[in-house]
Design goal:
The complex is a heterodimer of chains A (226) and B (308). Chain A has 226 residues and is mainly α. Chain A has one domain. In chain A, 78% of the residues lie in helices and 0% in strands. The termini of chain A are far apart. In chain B, a hairpin with a 2-residue loop joins strand 9 and strand 10. Chain B has two domains: 220 residues, Rossmann fold (3-Layer(aba) Sandwich), CATH 3.40.50.300; 65 residues, YebC, transcriptional regulation domain (Alpha-Beta Plaits, 2-Layer Sandwich), CATH 3.30.70. The two termini of chain B are 38 Å apart. By secondary structure, chain B is an alpha/beta fold. Classes of the chains: A mainly alpha (226), B alpha/beta (308). At the A-B interface, helix 4 of A face helix 3 of B.
C-alpha cells in the first residue's frame, strides 16, 4: 500500500522534475504534478477494483449472473461498481497523499488536500465508466489488458497527469484538453494553484459520467440479454 | 391449483437456431417438476428464460401472474436460481458468498443468520462455511449454491443439475431438504440422472429440440409403454435361423440380438412363454424380464417411434 506511491515518486516525479523543473505557470514540477500523481494512483486502483468486481467475475462466470438476478436495475448495478471503485480509490489516494506529502518541497493547504479528495471520485466516475465499457465489450483477458495499457498511456500523457497539454501541437492540445478526464485535472489544478473555479469544466465531466453510467447500464442489459 | 409459472408461446433463438420453440405450459404452486431431455434439447436455456437470466425472443413468461419482462424487479426476488456451473466467488468464504447475496436481496442480517444456519445444518455444510470456496470440493460448493439460492426465501427454486458433483451422502442430504421444501416452494429442476427424476417428481417435462414432447407424471409418461416388458434370453449359441424363428413369434416387438442374446419387448407374458417354447430345443444360459422405465422412454427408438 505504501510502496506503490513511493515507486511512482522515485521513478516518475524525481526523474521528470529534472527535465521539466517548473510548470508553464512557474510552479515547481513536483508540486504541480502532485494532484496528477494522486489521480494516477486512483486510476490504477479503480482499474484493479473493476477488473476484480466486474471483468474477472463476468469472463470466468463467477458470481456475476447471480448478481444480475438481484433486484436492482442494470444502471444501479453499474453505479454500484462505480461507487465501490470510487471509495477504494479515494481511500488509497488518502494513503498515498500521506506518503507523498513527505517529499513535497512545500505543503499544500488543507483545502487543497480536501479538493483532491473531492475530485478523485469525479475522476473515477469518468474513468470507471470507460473501464466498465471495456469490461463489458471485451471477452478475452489479453485483449482487455492490451486495451488498458493503451488507455493508461493516454491517461499518463494525454490528460495532463505528467505533462502539460500545452507542450503538444495546438490542435492536439485543444482536443486533449477538451476530454473529460483532462477537464477534471485542469479544474483541480486551477483550484489548487490559481484559486479559480471553472464550473463548466467541472459540470461537463459530471454530466458525461451520468450519461455514460446510463449507457453502461444499457450495454450490460444488452450483453446479458436480460 | 394456482399456477406459479406460466409460459405462453415462449421462443428463444440463438443466431438462426431455435433453442425453444413456442412453449406453452404452466407449473402449479408448490409442485416439484423435473425437466429431462437430450443434450442441446434446450433444458438449461428454458431454466434461464424462466429465471430471468436470459430473455425470450417472443412469447411471455408469467411468474405468480406477473410478466417477467415488464415486472422484472417485482418478480426477481421470488426466484432462487442454481446454475449447473459453480459460480460462487472463489476468493470469498462460503458464508461471505451467502451473506453478500442476502445483502443484495435486502435481507436483514438476523434472517440471513437464521436461514443460513438452518439450511447449512440440513445440508451438513456448517464446518465448510468459513472456508474459502476455492478450497472446497465441488459437491460441497454445489450445496452452498443451493443455500445461497434459498437465503432470500424465494417462492420458486430453479436448479440446473442440483446434485451434480455430489457423493451419495450429499445427494441424500440435498434431496431431504428439497423434499421438505416441496409444497412450500415451487421447485423446477433439470437432471441428466433419470433415476433421480424417477425418485423425485410430481411431474416430468421431456424436452426435445426445444419443444415439450412429453408432459406428465412418470406413470402417465409410461402409459403407452407401461404394460410392456423387456425380455432377454441368453443362449449357449444363438444361430441366425433361431433368431429369425424367434423374431417371427406373434406379438414379439422390436427383436434385436447382441452376441448370443435376443432382446425383445412384449405386452403379455404368454409372448415370453411362446418364445421359450419356440426355443426349447436350444440350450439357454440366462433369462431376464424388466419392467420399462424412464431410461427406456428416453431411448430415441421409443421417444420417436414407440414400440412397433
Amino acid at each position: 500500500m505504501f510502496i506503490f506511491p513511493l515507486l511512482i515518486h522515485f521513478f516518475v516525479t524525481i526523474v521528470l522534475k529534472n527535465v521539466l523543473v517548473n510548470s508553464l505557470e512557474q510552479i515547481p514540477y513536483d508540486i504541480w504534478v502532485f494532484p496528477g500523481i494522486l489521480l494516477l494512483i486512483a486510476a490504477i486502483t479503480a482499474n484493479a477494483v473493476i477488473y476484480r468486481d466486474l471483468f474477472d467475475l463476468r469472463v470466468h462466470q463467477r458470481a456475476f449472473l447471480p448478481l444480475t438476478l438481484a433486484p436492482f436495475s442494470k444502471t444501479q448495478l453499474i453505479l454500484g461498481f462505480l461507487v465501490i471503485s470510487a471509495i477504494e480509490a479515494t481511500f488509497y489516494v488518502l494513503v498515498a497523499m500521506g506518503v507523498l506529502n513527505f517529499f513535497l518541497p512545500k505543503t499544500l493547504s488543507a483545502l487543497d488536500y480536501f479538493m483532491i479528495l473531492v475530485f478523485t471520485p469525479i475522476f473515477i466516475f469518468i474513468l470507471g465508466n470507460i473501464l466498465i465499457t471495456f469490461s463489458l465489450l471485451i471477452d478475452r483477458i489479453t485483449t482487455y489488458l492490451s486495451t488498458i495499457l493503451v488507455l493508461f498511456l493516454i491517461i499518463l500523457f494525454g490528460s495532463g497527469v505528467l505533462v502539460e497539454l500545452e507542450f503538444y501541437p495546438k490542435t492536439i492540445s485543444l482536443i486533449l484538453s477538451n476530454l473529460p478526464l483532462s477537464m477534471i485535472l485542469y479544474s483541480l489544478r486551477d483550484i489548487i494553484f490559481s484559486n479559480r473555479v471553472d464550473w463548466t469544466q467541472i459540470f461537463i465531466p459530471i454530466f458525461v459520467a451520468i450519461i455514460w453510467t446510463w449507457f453502461n447500464g444499457f450495454l450490460l442489459k444488452r450483453k446479458l440479454n436480460q | 391449483m394456482e399456477a406459479s409459472i406460466t409460459l405462453k408461446k415462449v421462443g428463444k433463438l440463438i443466431g438462426d437456431k431455435t433453442i425453444l420453440a413456442s412453449l406453452t405450459f404452466g407449473i402449479e404452486r408448490g409442485s416439484l417438476v423435473a425437466i429431462i431431455g437430450d443434450n442441446e434439447a434446450g433444458k438449461s436455456m428454458l431454466l434461464k428464460v424462466i429465471s430471468g437470466i436470459e430473455y425470450q425472443e417472443y412469447g411471455h413468461v408469467y411468474i405468480n401472474g406477473l410478466d417477467s419482462k415488464k415486472r422484472r424487479l417485482d418478480i426477481i426476488s421470488t426466484i432462487g436460481f442454481v446454475p449447473h456451473e459453480i459460480d460462487l466467488d472463489p476468493w470469498l468464504t462460503l458464508e461471505q458468498n451467502v451473506r453478500f447475496m442476502g445483502f443484495m436481496y435486502g435481507v436483514d442480517t438476523e434472517s440471513v443468520n437464521t436461514r443460513m444456519i438452518q439450511l447449512a445444518r440440513e445440508l451438513h455444510i456448517i464446518p465448510h462455511l468459513k472456508r474459502m470456496v476455492k478450497d472446497i470440493s465441488p459437491g460441497i460448493v454445489k450445496k452452498g449454491m443451493i443455500l445461497r439460492a434459498l437465503v432470500h426465501d424465494p417462492d420458486i427454486l430453479i436448479m440446473d443439475e442440483p446434485t451434480a458433483f455430489m457423493d451419495a451422502e450429499s445427494y441424500r442430504h440435498t434431496w431431504d431438504l428439497l423434499l421438505r421444501l416441496k409444497g412450500k416452494k415451487t421447485i423446477l429442476y433439470v437432471s441428466q440422472s433419470l433415476s433421480e427424476v424417477e425418485e423425485a417428481h410430481d411431474r416430468i417435462l421431456v424436452l426435445e429440440d426445444g419443444i415439450i414432447s412429453l408432459d406428465g407424471s412418470l406413470d402417465k409418461l409410461l402409459g403407452s409403454t407401461f404394460d410392456y416388458h423387456q425380455f432377454q434370453i441368453e443362449f449357449e449359441e444363438l444361430s441366425e435361423d433361431l433368431f429369425q424363428k424367434l423374431s417371427q413369434v406373434p406379438k414379439v416387438k422390436n427383436p434385436s440380438r447382441i452376441g448370443n442374446s435376443i432382446h425383445f419387448y412384449g405386452r403379455e407374458r404368454n409372448v415370453f412363454f411362446a418364445v421359450l417354447n419356440a426355443a426349447a430345443s436350444a440350450v439357454m444360459k440366462d433369462i431376464s424380464v424388466n419392467k420399462l422405465g424412464l431410461q427406456d422412454l428416453m431411448d430415441a427408438k421409443f421417444a420417436r417411434d414407440g414400440i412397433h
